[in-house]
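Now for one record.
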Amino acid sequence: MRRHPALHRLSREHSPALTLARRLLQADAPASIAVAQDALRRWHRDLLQHFADEESVLLPLLVQLQESADGLRLQQDHVALRQALANCADAATTDPATGVSCRALGEQLRAHVHFEERQLFPLLEQRLTAGQWQAVAAALATTGAT
């Protein structure tokens, strides 16, 4: 699917997120500690800045466009994902016999990426003006580009 050039980086960053989600979904009991540790590393390397960019750049646009449901979903997903990551890390540390928390994180992460790619980004592509796209591109250019 073609994306507006201003969204290319955010969309590209979804690939490692989906890879992480797949790995989390496949986490079995013996591997849950390694998977949780890998999830924490990838979270800090790949997702922290991505979430911050979406919250600081896209969220204000959703408010401006009066798309409060999608803005609320974006915020709630990010909060839930942060909590799910903590649960995955805690569960793997205290009870390596279960990968349930890690699989739950994987499910939530996959659903969130699909929401953004299938609903949020297409909405923005339909609604934003050329000037708003320029502002998005400029704002994202000043953040942690990968």
